[in-house]
Design goal:
By secondary structure, the protein is α/β, with parallel strands linked by helices. 30% of the residues lie in helices and 23% in strands. The strands form four sheets. Strands 9-10-8-11-12-13-14-15-16 form a nine-stranded mixed beta sheet, with helices on both faces. It has a six-stranded mixed beta sheet with strand order 17-18-22-19-20-21, sandwiched between helices. Strands 2-7-6-5-4 form a five-stranded mixed beta sheet. Helix 4 crosses helix 10 and helix 7 runs parallel beside helix 8. One of its GO terms (biological process) is regulation of cell shape.
């Protein structure tokens, strides 16, 4: 059965369909479009209408547009609407309405994508499961995920993010979840909020979209937890807490053993134990919350806990890999996708607890954490006081904000301070070797992936090419 026919899509959007087409998928990117997709001509850095002809040439079955673009035949297979984004939202709304899936929405300052992927691993063993791709969690990512949802979906997992106040509630109302989960409230996007309480209120607004009789799955270990639970009371939702201080899903222990984390928890169904194939207490917390969400959806929690063992982090989100070098091996913790103070503290704790080989060192390569507002320098410098720093040998810093951490570190831990990731990547072959374990973490715009790729190059027997020092200055310390 097709995902959308021309008639269904026209009825859903109020648009005008040209041709009797049907589509099997929905895409916004001609680089990854598949034959049979509906191409959605969104306006972002460039107007998607510029790529409609290319999409159709690559096999798109139709395109969602606000006008017939230049270079496209007048009788091309199109769905013409007044506004493309509103048309995509309408498709998402119609897909949600026609589907009998049990829906969970996931938000939080940290751990949204990892938790979404945990839920996908847990639920897909119990029925047809549909989930957001990558971090498609914004004003176009949520409706796109919904518009792609097959009719036969049994469980749907919708990730919801934000950068500014007022973004989450409309997306939650579009998704209409039966269960909504908040992973954590932490300093992130502080440029747009006056306090952590403000962030908590925004995260809690995901509960505004709950279906009648919906369930809130909330982190019980936070200073802002009362704000979350008060919102559940306000909207009339049943609340389930998870965490070390929770009454419902209480974490008993999270023991890191090599590449695994062994978790024990007390739940309404009794004591549950599960193993994660990656180290980290923060992953244990998210796994426990995901377990609560599965139970709230009506899935079998025992099967869900067993399925969680096959989940592993996405590349760039805490993936652990071994890089074979002449004379031994180096361990890489690739957490380069994003960073804020809470996720940075969690990653540094994993590094500090990791076992090294022989004379191996624990090395952190850290890039600026963005969107922290006036407190940015203070929040960077404060990383030096984290308990985990006692177990880390060397910290290399990238970016102007990380200069505050570099200055705050004790001299014996102070590595290089570079203006760009490219500058540090050019020197990484001389900074890490056999037996070492290296963490790479920073906000996405800091491009820590260049450091990660340079480490992988060493493992392939090639020295990373010199790339210049960029706009920053390199200091020995």
């Amino acid at each position: 059965m097709s995902l959308w026919t021309a008639g269904e899509a026209a009825e859903a959007t109020g648009g005008r369909a040209q041709g009797a087409w049907q589509v099997d998928g929905v895409s916004i990117d001609t680089r990854t479009i598949a034959p049979g997709d509906l191409f959605v001509a969104l306006k972002a850095a460039r107007d998607g209408h510029e790529f409609v002809a290319q999409a159709l040439d690559k096999g798109a079955a139709a395109a969602l547009v606000s006008h017939i673009p230049e270079g496209v035949a007048q009788d091309a297979p199109l769905l013409i609407v007044d506004d493309v984004l509103q048309g995509l939202e309408a498709l998402g709304r119609a897909a949600r309405a026609r589907c009998q899936a049990r829906v969970v929405a996931v938000t939080g300052s940290v751990g949204k994508t990892s938790t979404k992927e945990m839920l996908a691993a847990m639920l897909s063993d119990q029925g047809a499961t549909h989930a957001s791709v990558a971090s498609y969690n914004n004003h176009w990512g949520v409706p796109l995920t919904l518009a792609r949802m097959p009719r036969e979906t049994r469980y749907a997992i919708i990730e919801i993010g934000m950068n500014h106040p007022g973004e989450i509630a409309p997306l939650a109302r579009l998704a209409r979840p039966h269960v909504a989960m908040v992973t954590i409230v932490a300093p992130a996007h502080l440029e747009a909020f006056d306090s952590l309480d403000g962030i908590a209120r925004e995260k809690a607004s995901v509960l505004d979209g709950l279906e009648p009789g919906g369930i809130a799955v909330l982190n019980a270990d936070l200073e802002q937890s009362p704000i979350l639970f008060a919102k559940a009371d306000e909207v009339g939702a049943m609340a389930l807490g998870f965490g070390a201080q929770a009454d419902d899903y209480r974490l008993i222990s999270a023991e890191v053993m090599g590449d695994e984390t062994r978790v024990a928890a007390e739940t309404p169904d009794g004591t549950v134990c599960f193993t994660l194939a990656t180290p980290g207490r923060h992953f244990a917390m998210n796994g426990l919350g995901a377990l609560a969400a599965c139970a709230a959806l009506g899935a079998d929690p025992a099967r869900a806990a067993a399925s969680l063992a096959r989940w592993t982090p996405y590349r760039g989100r805490g993936v652990r890999e071994t890089i074979v070098l002449p004379g031994g091996a180096l361990t890489l913790l690739d957490d380069s996708y994003n960073a804020n103070p809470a996720s940075m503290a969690a990653a540094l704790a994993v590094l500090a607890a990791a076992s090294t080989e022989g004379q191996g060192r624990r090395i952190a390569v850290l890039g600026d954490m963005k969107e922290l507002g006036p407190q940015a320098e203070h929040l960077h410098a404060a990383l030096a006081a984290l308990p985990a720093m006692a177990g880390i040998d060397t910290v290399h810093c990238i970016g102007p904000l990380m200069g505050a951490l570099h200055a705050a570190l004790p001299a014996e831990k102070r590595g290089l301070h570079c203006g760009t990731s490219a500058a540090l990547a050019a020197q990484i072959v001389d900074l890490a070797g056999p037996g070492d374990i290296v963490l790479a973490k920073g906000s996405l715009s800091m491009a820590l992936a260049k450091v990660v790729d340079a480490l992988r190059e060493i493992g392939q027997g090639r020295r990373a090419p010199a790339q210049g020092t960029g706009s920053g200055t390199t200091h020995e310390g």
